[in-house]
Amino acid sequence: MQPKTNIVHLPVYQPGKPVEDVKRELGLSEVIKLASNENAFGFSDLAKAAVIEELSNTPTYPDGASVELTAKLADKLGVETNQIIFGSGSSEIILMTARAFLAPGDETIMADETFSQYKHNAEIENARIIEVPLKDGKHDLPAMLAKITSKTKIVWICNPNNPTGTIVSHEELTAFMDEVPSHVLVVLDEAYGEYVQDSSYSDGVSMLSKYRNLLVLRTFSKIYGLASLRIGYGVGHADVIRYINQVREPFNTTRAAQAAAKASLSDDAFIERCAADNAKGIKYFSEQFDRLGLSYFESHGNFVMVDVKRPSQEVFDALLRKGIIVRPRWTYYPTYIRVSVGTMEQNEAFIKALERVLQEVTV
Ligand SMILES: *Cc1c(COP(=O)(O)O)cnc(C)c1O
């Protein structure tokens, strides 16, 4: 057997370590996972009720086109229904976009430290990957613009960026879009957009009427708290959405996921509460890192990337022994860990453990 040569070297995706594994391996009864940017504040009660009700329809295939959910979201976003596509998480929209737009040898541009799936899917399509270094943890849009050639097909921008949490402003983004040639698709990943409180942030959907080559990605996995159900979406020009629909699997989202997403869209109060609680967590982390003399990127998401000034794997292992899971091993930031905002109790437990670990693991 011979797989495609360009996939042979690819790593299998390494998710945040599951709580159950850590409990078993280390014999711990209490484990706190702050490694996958999940919503520590749960999910909407309306979504829970909707899933339970929808379960009775389990033997029947879902609506492949998610008609009801699409109509509700289109209304909420102020776009046409043919401008929206749903995926099994926005990860699947990334996969489908790469599949629809990237042929072998095409060029695609992304930041050097950003969400791993842009590069991963581009490699599967055998595209040529051009990575542009972050500048102070932020996307360097002028440098990315300078890399565009006639062969460029997709530029990926993660806003806020995972893992650094930084944002590019509306002004920076529009200045960039104004210069991007029309043959280039810009994918703007707003997986954490609902958390952003900064008024300079751009709402990508509001820019769609001006730029037909913009695709905005969002997900129900983060602030909506539906990560296990797997549902996310893309919003863009109807032509872009049609191309992506052409490579979509017929039944790529489940009934339960569609029902939960639809119900969640009626619960703005839950989202507002989560954004407010998250902001408190970010503030708490910032104050504590300042107190401990650790530098970090100013985060607009539900996680913070902090420099622990020691090899991140060692700090990860030491935290793990205390029952706290974070995310280490960043290629360009070897002494940084990424920690997700938890409940205040979890945040405090993390800081307490980190303080002890910093004494144990010498510089
Ligand atoms: C979590 C995340 C996603 C997608 O998550 P799904 O669960 O597949 O919707 C997409 N982009 C970024 C930057 C993320 O952090």
From TrEMBL:
<dbReference type="InterPro" id="IPR015424">
    <property type="entry name" value="PyrdxlP-dep_Trfase"/>
</dbReference>
<dbReference type="InterPro" id="IPR005861">
    <property type="entry name" value="HisP_aminotrans"/>
</dbReference>
<dbReference type="InterPro" id="IPR050106">
    <property type="entry name" value="HistidinolP_aminotransfase"/>
</dbReference>
<feature type="domain" description="Aminotransferase class I/classII large">
    <location>
        <begin position="30"/>
        <end position="354"/>
    </location>
</feature>
<keyword id="KW-0663">Pyridoxal phosphate</keyword>
<keyword id="KW-0368">Histidine biosynthesis</keyword>
<dbReference type="GO" id="GO:0004400">
    <property type="term" value="F:histidinol-phosphate transaminase activity"/>
</dbReference>
<feature type="modified residue" description="N6-(pyridoxal phosphate)lysine">
    <location>
        <position position="222"/>
    </location>
</feature>
<comment type="subunit">
    <text>Homodimer.</text>
</comment>
<comment type="similarity">
    <text>Belongs to the class-II pyridoxal-phosphate-dependent aminotransferase family. Histidinol-phosphate aminotransferase subfamily.</text>
</comment>
<keyword id="KW-0028">Amino-acid biosynthesis</keyword>
<dbReference type="InterPro" id="IPR015422">
    <property type="entry name" value="PyrdxlP-dep_Trfase_small"/>
</dbReference>
<dbReference type="GO" id="GO:0030170">
    <property type="term" value="F:pyridoxal phosphate binding"/>
</dbReference>
<protein>
    <recommendedName>
        <fullName>Histidinol-phosphate aminotransferase</fullName>
        <ecNumber>2.6.1.9</ecNumber>
    </recommendedName>
</protein>
<comment type="pathway">
    <text>Amino-acid biosynthesis; L-histidine biosynthesis; L-histidine from 5-phospho-alpha-D-ribose 1-diphosphate: step 7/9.</text>
</comment>
<dbReference type="InterPro" id="IPR015421">
    <property type="entry name" value="PyrdxlP-dep_Trfase_major"/>
</dbReference>
<dbReference type="GO" id="GO:0000105">
    <property type="term" value="P:L-histidine biosynthetic process"/>
</dbReference>
<dbReference type="Pfam" id="PF00155">
    <property type="entry name" value="Aminotran_1_2"/>
</dbReference>
<keyword id="KW-0808">Transferase</keyword>
<dbReference type="InterPro" id="IPR004839">
    <property type="entry name" value="Aminotransferase_I/II_large"/>
</dbReference>
<keyword id="KW-0032">Aminotransferase</keyword>
